[in-house]
TrEMBL record:
GO molecular function annotation: transmembrane transporter activity
Protein family according to the UniProt entry: Belongs to the major facilitator superfamily.
Native species: Bucco capensis (collared puffbird)
Name of the gene encoding the protein in the UniProt record: Mfsd9
Name of this protein: MFSD9 protein
Pfam families documented for this protein: MFS_1 (PF07690)
TM annotation in the entry: 31-49, 61-81, 93-119, 154-173, 179-200, 262-281, 301-321, 342-364
Positions of the Major facilitator superfamily (MFS) profile domain: 27-441
Keywords assigned by UniProt, alphabetized: Membrane, Transmembrane, Transmembrane helix, Transport
Mode of membrane association: Multi-pass membrane protein
Cellular compartment(s): Membrane
């Protein structure tokens, strides 16, 4: 009888574990849908915004200033929103970001003046960090070995949304008051996304065994207990309802912890590679027209082809990481080296076929590199909280987006190949930085930094 009871208990334990694993898988798939809907809605509107603001009577300078202000708001808000999501929990921060972004796109749909257009960009510029918070949540739900695979699939699902969104947006613009229909449709998609997030089984979901997340989604943690609150002394479990000054203090402590951490080289690599890739794309259409006489339509097809290959690369990250035995550093080093080589091939291309070849493999190397740098940030600095780390990383990328157009403009004065040539130099510098810090990533202690 005792043996039978032990067998039943064992079967029950396995059943519970299997049920938990299935629930976690459903949760992760729902987050893929969140990423898809986010970029699907955004990509409906973004390609049409310059046309709309010019139709309102704004000059090119005013349109550029408003675009720059959005980038600057993203630069400063990403770190704070990421840290805030660590403090109040992923559920409430994700819902707040989606709903406030929906408000921004709703205001965009009512913008009949340049001033209203600028005001509508404020809530989006501050709170449009849905993808970063979703990635932070994914990093806590899955085992560390599976993180690159899951991140790759999440990026692939988001990219599919970015490919399909402009098609629907282009169709809606043909209607009477097309831009306003598009903006309201985008806001509706964000509301749908918020409903999806609200209905996720937060009370049942738990991190996978072996993952580095510390969130508890148990029934007694319905307020989404703040990440590592007991260990870090940030807040003690009131979630969203904690006082604002306690939340602010906890956010500042997290930012200070990251500033004093040993992550500077990872962020330097991310910055250099981001600028290098942005320089490659900065004058892509114009350079192809000047160098090979191809029409902008061909460049558009080539970029769409690259985006589709990027989706495929995200789906193949699982087998690739297994080939590399889950050595993220080595995969990042090789993908960055390949990116540098391919940009050099594009720069020295003598025919359009060499450009197509470089674009084909560049779609794979850049997608893999973006996923690996995020995984390396979380692996080396996981003790700081994934939301904070991803927020700082997004700020680094925002700085790259500000710096790259300036460098591209200067390099363009010398040659159509000037921007990508400069990108090759920056990519080489990133590879040198990685090699200089190789010991940190390859030593046994390096893999344990996140547990200290």
């Amino acid at each position: 009888a005792a043996g039978s009871r032990m067998e039943e208990d064992g079967d029950g334990g396995r059943g519970t574990a299997g049920s938990s694993l299935a629930a976690s898988s459903r949760f992760v798939r729902c987050l893929y849908a969140v990423g898809f809907l986010d970029l699907f809605g955004v990509s409906m509107v973004v390609p049409l915004m310059n046309l709309h603001i010019k139709s309102l009577g704004a000059s090119h300078t005013v349109a550029g200033i408003i675009g720059s202000l959005y980038g600057i708001m993203q630069l400063f808000s990403s770190t704070f929103v990421g840290c805030w999501s660590d403090v109040v929990g992923r559920r409430y921060s994700l819902l707040a970001c989606i709903l406030l972004s929906a408000l921004g796109y709703f205001l965009l749909g009512t913008s009949t003046t340049v001033l209203l257009f600028a005001i509508s960009r404020v809530p989006v510029g501050i709170f449009k960090h849905t993808l970063s918070i979703s990635k932070a949540l994914l990093s806590e739900l899955v085992a560390e070995r599976e993180r690159p695979l899951v991140m790759g699939r999440f990026n692939a699902a988001s990219s599919v949304g970015f490919i399909l969104g402009p098609v629907l947006g282009g169709y809606l613009t043909q209607l009477q008051g097309g831009f306003y229909h598009t903006a309201f449709s985008c806001a509706s998609i964000f509301l749908l996304n918020a409903g999806l997030v609200w209905m996720l089984p937060w009370s049942e979901e738990k991190p996978q065994e072996g993952s580095k997340g510390t969130h508890s989604f148990s029934a007694k943690a319905k307020c989404d207990v703040p990440l590592n609150s007991a260990r870090k002394g940030a807040l003690a479990g009131d979630g969203l309802f904690c006082s604002a000054w306690l939340q602010a203090a906890a956010v500042l402590r997290r930012i200070q912890g990251i500033a004093c951490s040993a992550l500077w080289d990872v962020f330097v690599v991310r910055f250099l590679m981001s600028v290098a890739i942005l320089l490659y794309y900065s004058n892509f259409t114009l350079a192809l027209e000047e160098r090979f006489g191809v029409k902008p339509l061909f460049s558009g097809y080539l970029l769409s082809y690259s985006n589709a290959l990027g989706v495929l690369a995200g789906c193949l990250l699982g087998p690739i990481t297994r080939v590399y035995q889950h050595n993220t550093y080595r995969l990042l080093l090789h993908s960055s080296s390949l990116t540098c080589t391919l940009i050099l091939l594009y720069t020295s291309a003598l025919s359009i076929w060499m450009v197509i070849l470089s674009s084909t493999f560049l779609a794979f190397s850049t997608t893999i590199g973006r996923t690996c740098i995020i995984d390396l940030e979380l692996s080396i600095g996981g003790k700081e909280g994934s939301g904070a780390l991803l927020g700082v990383g997004q700020s680094v990328t925002s700085v790259a987006r500000i710096v790259a157009p300036l460098l591209a403009g200067i390099a363009q004065e010398f040659s159509p190949c000037g921007p990508p040539s400069l990108g090759v130099g920056l990519a080489l510098l990133a590879i040198v930085v990685m090699n200089m810090n190789k010991q940190k990533y390859c030593s046994p202690a390096g893999g344990k930094l996140k547990n200290q």
